[in-house]
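Quick one:
INPUT:
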């Protein structure tokens, strides 16, 4: 059973494409963003985070103050490195256990926007890149997050260029339309057949 990463820059629609793999082909998808958020609540992680960053990172109910953490990580590369070194081993232990529970499938998908930026390629047998034009990605994120173009472009600047990621990926799915459509499903099924060795 293969471990396959599915990635894409902000606004590319990788989450939607991942859902289509699940709904139409029955492929299990590991949402790394959602799982990472859950890790912040683990007692050992809370203890390590407060020891490193001081109190105040969590509210009185024990919930992570996301905006405060985001600012810390944005301003300090060393802080980001600390958090990644703390969380990634736990995250991938969970992924490995989860994948084992889906061992009857030909492959499973690990959904993450930052596979290449974090040099995680070696953990996977293949990488699927979901891509869309810059204009499409801008429009999607501005609508979804109700934010300005400048804010979206700031976030885009933190990710590698799409053309570089596409060159490094094993498979590329172009996702310009905002709905489920025949052309998109054909691409997904083509990648599925390749991953299954058909």
């Amino acid at each position: 059973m293969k471990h396959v990463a599915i990635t894409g820059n902000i606004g590319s629609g990788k989450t939607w494409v991942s859902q289509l793999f699940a709904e139409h082909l029955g492929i299990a998808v590991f949402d790394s963003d959602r799982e990472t958020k859950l890790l912040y609540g683990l007692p050992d992680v809370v203890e390590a985070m407060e020891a490193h960053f001081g109190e105040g990172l969590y509210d009185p109910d024990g919930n992570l103050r996301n905006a405060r953490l985001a600012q810390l990580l944005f301003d300090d590369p060393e802080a980001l490195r600390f958090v990644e070194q703390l969380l990634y081993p736990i995250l991938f232990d969970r992924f490995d256990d989860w994948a084992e529970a889906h061992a009857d499938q030909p492959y499973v998908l690990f959904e993450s926007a930052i596979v290449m930026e974090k040099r995680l390629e070696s953990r996977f047998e293949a990488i699927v890149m979901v891509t869309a034009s810059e204009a499409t990605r801008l429009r999607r994120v501005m609508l979804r997050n109700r934010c300005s173009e400048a804010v979206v472009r700031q976030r885009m600047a933190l990710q590698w260029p799409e053309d570089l990621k596409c060159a490094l990926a094993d498979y590329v799915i172009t996702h310009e339309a905002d709905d489920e459509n025949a052309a998109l499903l054909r691409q997904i099924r083509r990648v599925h057949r390749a991953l299954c060795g058909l």
